[in-house]
Amino acid sequence: MATKKKWEYSPAPESKQPAAIASRYELFINGKWQKPSSGNYFNSINPATEEKLSEIALAEEADVNKAVQAARQGYEKYWKKISPTERGKYIFRIARIMQERARELAVTETMDGGKPIRESRDFDIPTAANHFFYYAGWADKLDFAFPNKKANSLGVAGQITPWNFPLLMAAWKIAPALATGNTVVLKPAETTSLTTLKLAEIIQEADLPPGVVNIITGAGQTGALLTKHTDINKIAFTGSTEVGKIIQRTLAGSSKKLTLELGGKGANIIFEDAPIDQAVEGVINGIFFNQGHVCCAGSRLYVQESIAKIFIKKLKDRIGTLLVGDPLDKNTDIGAINSAQQLKTIQSFIKIGKAEGASFYESDCALPKKGYFCRPSLFTNVAQSNRIAQEEIFGPVLCILTFRTDDEVIEKANNSPYGLSAGIWTDKGARIFNISKRIRAGVIWANTYNLFDPTSPFGGYKESGFGREGGLQGLQPYVQLS
Ligand code: NAP
Ligand code: MG
Description:
single chain, 482 residues, alpha/beta, Aldehyde Dehydrogenase, Chain A, domain 1, Aldehyde Dehydrogenase, Chain A, domain 2, 2 domains, seven-stranded mixed β-sheet, six-stranded mixed β-sheet, 15 helices, binds NADP nicotinamide-adenine-dinucleotide phosphate, binds magnesium ion
């Protein structure tokens, strides 16, 4: 049944002008913008309009070699020798310039990736700057981070990021690497390189010594070349489990350190004593935040049977009020799907869910004529063994299952190849502690969902990867203790 719109808003679009996107971006190697050896470029488009935003240099083998060599020289000549206090000052400078250019970064992130401006403005960009502030503070305090040990830098870190939180993932990777005295070669995702290239401009503006941070752009092949390079000491990868496994195979037998942040299928658990309206908001935030392009999304919802009927009704009502459309509009809740390819993947999972016999419900909102958009939706009557309950959809599609007892929901929540995140909604503190101890997930939120802080470590179990980013634990993958 069609849900009546509760509110209508006048359009409130943010101006595109602050983005100041150049028509072409080169590779950032050794502190300079350099043309790719092949002379090839690829386009970055706006997924909300399908318009070309810019063209970006494609790094091939010679460029990857050049970037790694620059990072090695940057390490030996400068970064290794600079005092930790000075290192910290550089990182603080990056954070401050990010804040100064926050609006430009937010508008660019939204245009390049499709996420609502409200999110890039209020979450992605400030959280990315906060990561630099946080790790800048650690640069001269490593002796306190690792008492009675000496934290030695590793050398050159090769880093690869995904398209769902482009600038934030670059910050999660670059900030701890620099704070611990390593230099970096980073490759952003092909569809969302622009804010990382702007971060390279900021690094240039902050006057970091040449070669300390190098940004090379390209597709998966460029990333693969980076992981295979023999003069790299550490690889940090965030992306799909499939590519994570390829990288693990590539690195087997080498001395490179590795951290993998991979996919997820987060269980969000609602007990009958939960504050229902708050929990409905939490579920909405858990799955529809950033179009469901979130590795730790609460994409598997477990509702206690006694409240399932009312809970699902409230969820459907709320889904009907979500505004899908222009990501630059400040009222928009759900922006554009990142690429035509990802939209196809989501649509194919919706087909699979229907064929598996689950009941499908979606908002009846209108979608823009151009661009890649998807209505928020949910499946009920889902079985634990269904593909839609086991595999990562990475879109605004929620799967709802029910349970009766604590033991049952723990077993179901843990019955997943992933172990990245979970949520628990209940009035009882003791139940929160009991359940969270027994659920195998790296992050567990209680009576909230999708909250992040630079001081808090993040990472997974099982096929969600290993290693932690954020917090004191996020320093560890970048040091050798002696
Ligand atoms: P992806 O296809 O694995 O790509 C991730 C990055 O790896 C991109 O920069 C990609 O380049 C590059 N790449 C592709 N093939 C490669 C190869 N053979 N060797 C080295 N690098 C390669 O993942 P995605 O589709 O961008 O991102 C979505 C996935 O990331 C989801 O599964 C999500 O759960 C996961 N994710 C996890 C976390 C976490 O912290 N656990 C955070 C965010 C996202 P191109 O883009 O140019 O192909
Ligand atoms: Mg793009």
